[in-house]
Amino acid sequence: MDTPLRTIESILPQLTPAERAQVLQWVVRDLAGSAPGIDKTSGICGGAACIVRTRVPVWTLVQARRQGLSEAELLASYPTLRAEDLINAWTYARMYPDEIEGAIAENEVA
Predict the structure, then answer these.
(1) What is the separation of C-alpha 24 from the centre of its chain, rounded to a whole number of angstroms?
(2) Following CA atoms 7, 11, 17, 19 in sequence, which dihedral angle do they give, to the nearest 10 degrees?
(3) What whole-number distance in Å separates Cα of residue 50 and Cα of residue 83?
(4) Which stretches of the chain are DSSP H helices?
(5) What is the pLDDT, as a whole number, of residue 1?
(6) For the chain, what are the domain ranges?
(7) Gap between the Cα atoms of 36 and 88, Å rounded
(8) pTM score of the predicted model
(9) Inter-axis angle of helices 58-66 and 97-107, to 10 degrees?
(10) What is the pLDDT of residues 63-72, one digit of tens each?
(11) How far apart, in whole angstroms, are the C-alpha atoms of residue 4 and residue 99?
(12) 38-107 topology per CATH
């Protein structure tokens, strides 16, 4: 079965260097708005941005940090997380502050 990735793989050798450069520019432009290590999947955690391989929402980590938990405490509390996951979470939170603030507000206990 031909997947889009296999199609690209088969076409790439036929492209000129200039065409390959153009494809690369498209890929870079597409990835510019992405956040490594963060996934948003409909139906998982309400579609909230989560750390990959986990169901730990970014907003939860941001809120815990605001409440005074250190990174070491977060890593101890969430044993599936790695230090790089926290870096990715903080980066995502800086990229999408309105989304994170909205999720925190939605999930606050009154």
Answers:
(1) 21
(2) -70
(3) 15
(4) 4-11, 17-31, 58-66, 71-77, 83-95, 97-107
(5) 62
(6) 1-32, 38-107
(7) 7
(8) 0.70
(9) 80
(10) 999 999 999 9
(11) 31
(12) Arc Repressor Mutant, subunit A (1.10.10)
